[in-house]
Amino acid sequence: MVEPVDNNVASQPSTFDELLPAEMAAKAQTLGIKKANMDFMSTFALAVMAGAFIALGCIFYTISQTTGGATVSWGLMKVIGGLTFCLGLILVIVGGAELFTGNNLIIMAWASRQLSTWKVMRNWGIVYFGNLVGAVATALVVFGAQHFTFDKGAVGLTALNIGLTKVNYGFLQAILLGILCNALVCLAVWLTYSARTVMGRIMAIIFPIAGFVAAGFEHCVANMYFIPYSILIRSGAGDSFWQSISTTADAFSRLTWGNFIVNNLIPVTIGNIIGGVFFVALVYWVVYLRGGNKQVKKA
Description:
By secondary structure, the protein is mostly helical. Helix content is 69%, strand content 0%. It contains 11 helices and no strands. Helix 2 (40-64) crosses helix 5, helix 3 packs antiparallel against helix 8 (198-215) and helix 5 runs parallel beside helix 9 (220-236). The chain is elongated and about 65 Å long.
C-alpha cells in the first residue's frame, strides 16, 4: 500500500540547511543576550583565551611574512598572511571564546531593548580587558621563548617592522582602518551564524578575515599582541640579536607604550566599534529585527 504524500514536507526546511539571514539575525540577538548575561569569571576567562587565540594567529602571520631573503610579491605575501591569521578567529569561534570585536554584534539585542546599556558596556569592558591580558601574556611568553631570534633574527625583525608600521599611522587613518577591519570581522562572525557544521563555520571565517588582513586593516586585539611584542623586542633583545639583523634599537625608537596606546590602540578601538556596530550590527537590525520580537523584557 502506498503511503499518502504530505504536501507540506517539501516546504519544510531541512535541519542540515544553513540558516537564512533573518534566522541569523534572531540567532545573533539570542547569543547577544546570553553573552551579556554571563557571569564575570566565565566572561573574563573566555576573553583571556580569545586574546591568546588571536595572538597565536599573529604569531602565524609573523612567520608567514618572514621571507628569509626570498623574493615574493607584496600582494602574495599579504594574501598568505591573511590566510595564516585566520587561525585566531577559527580558534575563537570553534573553540568558544569572547572576542571584543565580534561582540560588537551584541548591540543588536540592545537595539531591540532586550539588553540595557549597562549590560552591553559591562560585557565590552570585561572582554576588552580580558583580550588585552591574554594577548600581552602571550607576547611575554613568546618573547621569553626567544622566538624573535629564529631564522638568524629575521623573525624578530619582521615583528619589529610590523609594530613600527602600526604606531606610525595618523589618528584618523587608524580610525578608518579600524572601521574597515571590524566591518569584515563582524561579517565573518555573522556568516558563522548561518552554518550548522564546524567546516561551515571555518569556511565562513576564511575570506572576510584573510581579506582584512591582506588589505592591511587594523584590529585592536591583534595589535594588543603585535605592538607589545615589538616593544619587548626593542627594549629587551641582547646585542647579539641587533648584530644579527644589522641594525640598532634606535631605528625603532617610536615603539613605545605611549605611541602604542595613543597612536594605535585608542583610534583603532574607536574605528572597530564604529565598523562593527554601525556598518554591520545596526544595519542587519534595521532590516530584520526592527519593531519585532518585543516579547522579551529588558534585561
